[in-house]
Amino acid sequence: MTSTRQTVRTHWVALRALLVFTAVLGLAYPLTITVIAQIGLPAQANGSLVRNADGDVVGSALMGQSFTDASGAPLPEWFQSRPSAAGDGYDGGASSGSNFGPENEDLIAAIEERKAAAAELEGVDENDVPADAVTASASGLDPHISPEYALLQVGRVADARGLDEADVRALVEDHIQAPDLGYLGAPTVNVLALNLALAEMGD
């Protein structure tokens, strides 16, 4: 009898602990954090969405996207993002890098192919193509490119849009973001933000 009573008591204590922790950690905590985020950082809490001049959502400042046609060919009038190994490219449901080692034959072949394509697109020597133009990020979703890669594309974009090259170069320089806290990482350019500013520039 005593053993049965002890078992029931133990299970009742466990059930009460489960209910309390479910209420606190499963309901109260997420709700509190959600309210704080919506009040303090609403843009970030809702995905750092980016809107165009018409107010339409065109993407997120935290997620890259491709600027290509239906066949996957780069559109010359837009700045191009770096390659993506996430699904068919910038697939949020398949975030990953290729996970190939530096001596993997498939990776080496892909880099050589991308380098040749980028050099032809920009009209430069293959040795002038920066690394981020031919390699994917670890997540496959990086929305940034290096200032070097952005500036490499200035001539082609200006020519495709009939704009003054100096004006397009100035636009890129205005969109160079300093490293986080001034020293973490390297300077970057958000491709979506740059292309939105480019679209407004052409209006």
Automatic annotation (TrEMBL):
The chain crosses the membrane at residues 12-31. Coiled coil: none annotated. Pfam families: KdpC. It is a single-pass membrane protein. It is found in: Cell membrane. Its main location: membrane. Belongs to the KdpC family. PANTHER family: POTASSIUM-TRANSPORTING ATPASE C CHAIN, POTASSIUM-TRANSPORTING ATPASE KDPC SUBUNIT. Part of the high-affinity ATP-driven potassium transport (or Kdp) system, which catalyzes the hydrolysis of ATP coupled with the electrogenic transport of potassium into the cytoplasm. This subunit acts as a catalytic chaperone that increases the ATP-binding affinity of the ATP-hydrolyzing subunit KdpB by the formation of a transient KdpB/KdpC/ATP ternary complex. This is Potassium-transporting ATPase KdpC subunit.
